[in-house]
Amino acid sequence: MKRWLTVFSASLLLLLSGCSYLNTAADTLDYVKEATSYAATLDNFAAETPALIKQAIDNQVAADELTVQLQQMKNEIQSFNTLEVPETVTGFHQEIIEQNNLLTQQIDLYLKDLKDGKLNPSTLENSKLLQPVQEITTIIVQIQKLGAQVNETLGA
Questions:
Q1: Is residue 71 domain-resident?
Q2: Which member of 8, 54, 91, 129 has the greatest number of CB atoms within 10 A?
Q3: 11 in a domain, yes or no?
């Protein structure tokens, strides 16, 4: 499905012509930059969060820090979801929004548990917090490939 979207998007770009093509290509490249930046944010979140979660079980300072980190990630998600999206990547963006919604649900579970102070150990057992991050990263890799195709087409 993702490969099909890549091929479809690249084909669509090739069919466009004139200024419209250049505008679409530029918009697509801008989106690729935003998605790449978002991927870096997700990577940092995925790298830092697990250790902080374990500490938050019996450490109030870590629990407070985790709360801040989770809230910041929710803000990043909301910001990315509301980006202006060129038609060439709407399918990709919709997939990311779906995964972002799953990630937000997981974050909300942690935030709810953290409202009572320290993190409950049972929250860790049922955690699926980082699964959407992996899915989003995979989608963004496809978007980056599309961006490379656009750059290649413009350079040709």
A1: yes
A2: 129
A3: no
Residue 65 CA: distances (Å) to CA of 8, 41, 112, 122, 136: 43, 17, 15, 19, 24
Calpha distance 132→99 (Å, rounded): 5
Alpha helices by DSSP H, 82-156 = 90-114, 121-125, 131-155
pLDDT digits (tens, 9 = 90+) for 75-101: 999 999 999 999 989 999 999 999 999
Q: What does pLDDT average to in each consecutive run of 10 residues of the chain (156 residues)?
A: 58 52 75 93 93 89 94 98 93 95 94 79 75 89 86 74
Closest CA to 137 of 2, 10, 36, 7: 36
The total number of structural domains in the chain stands at 1
Asked whether residue 146 is assigned to any structural domain, the reply reads yes
Q: Which domain holds residue 39?
A: 19-155
The answer to whether residue 83 sits within a structural domain is yes
CATH number of the domain where residue 79 is located: 1.20.120.1730
Q: CB under 8 Å to 155, separation ≥6 — which residues?
A: none
Q: Say if residues 109 and 51 touch (Cβ distance below 8 Å).
A: no
